[in-house]
Amino acid sequence: MPNIFLSIMKYDYGDSQRGFSYEYNNLYLPLCDVFGKDNIYLFDFFTLFKEKGKNEMNLLLKEKIESFKPDIALFALFEDEFDEKIVNSLKGTTNTVVYFFDDPWRTKFANYWKQYFNYFSTPDYTMYQRYLSDGNKYVFFTPFGFNKNIYKKTNVEKIYDVSFVGGYSPLREWTIKKLKSNGINVNVFGRGWNKDKSWLTEKEMVNVINQSKINLNLSNAQSYYLPFLFWSLCSYKTVKDLLLLRKTIEQVKGRHYEINGCGGFQLSFNIPGLEIAYEIGKEIAVYSSIDNLIEKINYYLKNENEREAIANNGYQRSLKDHTAQIYLENLVNKVIGEN
Question: Which DSSP letter does residue 59 get?
Fold first, then answer.
């Protein structure tokens, strides 16, 4: 079994009160499942960064890698916590890999950091093809997938007609209000929707997905729709939120795999690349506009057999092809196979 050094943020945005991070649940735990916990060295860089400062954290990083002598060192970056010279020096010690999450819209960040690693990965197929066409030989296509030990089908009673789990954004608020004004009861869960800015635990999110007849996966970047723009001008806060919006490009997200991995019926905004992961209309349903979304919701609420068939097809496809365990095993084996 290979030895793997994993440098990630252990807690959600570095805050232990918010629970474990996406990286911990969907990189560390699946790697432990595949290669064994004893073969994984977890380096919580952000906690060390806060406690010891940038310089000491980076020196400790170099010391640990040189001592552990891993076959592969996998990094999930946040902002500018790492020292470029130290990271670059590690390329001669082990196979360094940077795992990008948001390179379709953090393009400048990704292009800057990938030069300091032996390899890099992208979850986005369009970006993968772009990297290849630009002559990047050391890139791997690694979709998010889902941790099969967290996101599960539970066969509980469906108590919600329609639900959405995700963070607040002006476009999503407008979408939810349009649905409700058309008589659709939508249950909303996630950060920013309530004054207390509460969020669901992983277990609570799995319950909501399993308890929902329709799980929405709403756009968070397509903000140029004229009716929405006219609506947004009525609120200073909304205009401010739009001006501060960093994400302007859609991508297939972890939530696409998580919903289907729980056996939930998913109605998603039609994002380029989604058709690579799931067969549209058979394993996942999509919408293209607010009017189309309203139409699709009403249709699938009335057609339970078709809805459940799509949910089951998406669930089976997810277990077969899209677990984080499968994707991370493939990534590690490809990197080691290159050497």
Answer: H
